[in-house]
Amino acid sequence: MIISVKSKGNLCKFKDYLFAQMSSDTNDAAKVECTDQPGKNEELTGVRKWVSENLLLIVTLLGVAIGIATGFGLRSLQLSESSIVMISYPGELFMRILKLIILPLIISSLIAGSASLNARLNGRIALRTLVYFFLTSVTNAILGVILATVIHPGDQGLKISIEKEMAPNKKKGLVLDSLLDLGRNIVADNIFQATFQQAHTDYVNGTERRFNMETGESEVHNVIAREIKYRLGTNTLGIVFFCLIFGTILGTLGQRAKVVIDFFSVIFEVIMKMVNGVIWLTPVGISSVIAGKILSVSDVALVISQLGWFIATVIFGVFLYQLIIMQLIYFVFVGKNPFKFYVGLIQGTVTAFATASTAAALPVTFTLMDEKVKVDQRVTRFVLPIGCNINMDGTALFIAVASIFIAQMNGVQLGIGELVTVCFTSTAASFSSASVPSAALVLLLMVLSAIDTPDQDVSLLFAVDWLVDRFRTTNNMLGDCYAAAVVEKLSKKELMACDAIQELSTGFDNHISSNNLDKDLEPTEIVIQSFPNGATN
Description:
The chain is built from 19 helices and 4 strands. By secondary structure, it is mostly helical. The protein has 3 domains: 2-49, no CATH class; 54-490, Sodium:dicarboxylate symporter (Proton glutamate symport protein, Orthogonal Bundle), CATH 1.10.3860.10; 497-534. Helix 15 (393-409) packs across helix 17 and helix 15 packs antiparallel against helix 18. Keywords: Glycoprotein, Membrane, Symport, Transmembrane, Transmembrane helix, Transport.
């Protein structure tokens, strides 16, 4: 007997089960058939699995879309400042949570990561990382110069009269000052102060009394004095440097340091579990941040119409580097499909875009590198915290394009020498920039002074920096991730050797412990005597 059940899904399975039970109870050899198509079930299962694995990414992208739609949709209502603050408030809390996690995450990851490797391997990884960051920053600066020269986004017709925001008679910062501040922050004089203050060079207006030989009287002269001051903000560079040295030396102490290493490893695991919970707030936080930012901009259409070519040049450079140059680097050095790696980092890219900070996106980046793209934890713990502070590929690109853009607006002709200067000063400035929003605009003033270009039009870029900053931040974040993958590949032999040494060390320690245990058992050795017929007593 054949029973045909024309149904789908769970109903079909339920009927199959009932008919099968009836057939078995009556000892009837019934053959149960279902006309449901198994191909569709498998296809639906595959779709559900993909949605389940990428649910966070889907809702995050949905949050971005809702934020953009909400921002532009509510602009016509001309909301009050208080209303905009309330819309931005969830995003503000989300940013504060991410920033709360950053410092313990960096400290625990660097100490645990550097301690898990030997000092020689730490040095090699650090050297490869720094060389990679330098070369990619130079590449971005050169790319920015080429694009700005070819596209020519600047036009003297766009120049409008604006007030100079810098105070008169106040000396501008120099690239040299920025580099010296970089060194001062790397070598912090107080590790506790580094958690909330950074050193920086400032120029202040003052007076100086001088003696006039002709009149025989003292005169008061206005002078500009250079001072080293401290400003609020975490000195992450100093903390990174201290943790690297601390962790490297800790790794040389052997078993005596095991408790301390385990302590920081457990802290890292706890922080990452916190991240796994916080990360689900991303869709709401990102939607709030984007909507609030769009509502706070005075006139988006006017800004885009005036600076559209500049915005397009920077964004085109960002995607050209991400989709072609970066993928080529990954394929050449790693030898795998680069776009699969790129797609695995989309969640981090969206977070970096929304927060405009590589440091704020660092917790999410760690999760993706460990769980999605599977890069060695020892390398990611080492490379990512360093990269989020000194690797500013997008910033180098932006500064190069912005420098030439402002020169073109003012009718300044730049020769080969000036273009080379833009490349190197943009690279140097990007290394000394902090991983906070809009830091590039401050460094842009220094680069303009190096090529003798008027800087009064820099304030024009403040109107679009909220948008451009987000695109260049994605370059910075992805650059850190690709650097970790390349460094892992270049250091594969050393990592395998380190694993072998650790296995031998663990085996030796277990052998010693076993021998000590045998010695402890010798006084109470158990003797088994044999008896006929296999009996024992």
